[in-house]
């Protein structure tokens, strides 16, 4: 995922002006978004809301000035508008996504992240995607790692898991071989986008639905020298990177859990750092 300065969508229909201002101020302080009902549309460039009372859904349109909208469901979201296109040999238009953890000070309600890698026994996640054919995009997880328990800004290492790609697009960097992870075979890419290291795992054919352990991929990053056991997992995100069009793409369902039961060599600890940070910049 590539990112830019954001704002958080806030709403409060039916509230008095004074109460609305108070709620808005508190929301800004905590870095959280309001819970959405199914059918809630988010069209603001960096607008977000929450689903299931525990995950953030974000529009995250950072790479284009063309309109984009997402609409929430009970367990995910659908891209309902995705105008325009960008060159396929450059960064994508956006990363509409759902996540657990913290992303640019916006933390999912009740998240256990950031958490030290050495203290995580497992981090099971599950997703079901819905694809379209009249667009150029990838469908991917974004897993963010950093030496500090930060809730703001760009992390040091990004793991991408490409479930599907349509059109002439490829991950950051270059191919470095193949690997078996989570019982599947992947083409592995490695590189740097100018802001952070990126380790990508590309499925040889489209995966529509899968349940797996995020830590299987995190251990790959550690073994390749792109992270350490004393680093932190800060967020687990899943969505799409569209280059052309994208209307109709959907995450039908998403779940994420982090068990800080003690992994290899340490005990679990969740970050308690403040939710303040700097504006994001595009790589």
How does this structure look, described?
It is built from two helices and 17 strands. The protein has a single domain, classed as Jelly Rolls (Sandwich). It has helices spanning 17-30, 214-223, and strands spanning 41-42, 48-51, 55-58, 68-72, 77-82, 97-103, 106-107, 115-116, 124-130, 136-146, 157-166, 174-181, 184-192, 197-202, 209-213, 232-244, 250-256. The strands form two sheets. Strands 2, 3, 6, 7, 8, 10, 11, 12, 13, 14 and 16 form an eleven-stranded mixed sheet that branches. It has a six-stranded antiparallel sheet with strand order 1-4-5-17-9-15. With 283 residues, the protein is mostly beta strands. The radius of gyration is 18 Å and the shape is globular.
Quick summary:
With 283 residues, this protein is mainly beta. The protein contains two helices and 17 strands. It has a single domain (17-256), classed as Jelly Rolls.
What's the average pLDDT?
Answer: 85
The CATH architecture classification is Sandwich
Give the overall form.
Answer: globular
Distance between the termini: 10 Å
CATH superfamily, please? Glycoside hydrolase family 11/12, catalytic domain
Order of secondary-structure elements: HEEEEEEEEEEEEEEEHEE
CATH class: Mainly Beta
Q: Rg, please?
A: 18 Å
The helix tally amounts to 2
CATH topology: Jelly Rolls
- Strand residue percentage: 35-45%
**Biggest sheet overview:** 11 strands, mixed
Would you identify the regions where 5 or more consecutive residues have pLDDT less than 50? 2-33, 264-283
Q: Which range best describes the helical content: under 10%, 10-25%, 25-40%, 40-55%, 55-70% or over 70%? A: under 10%
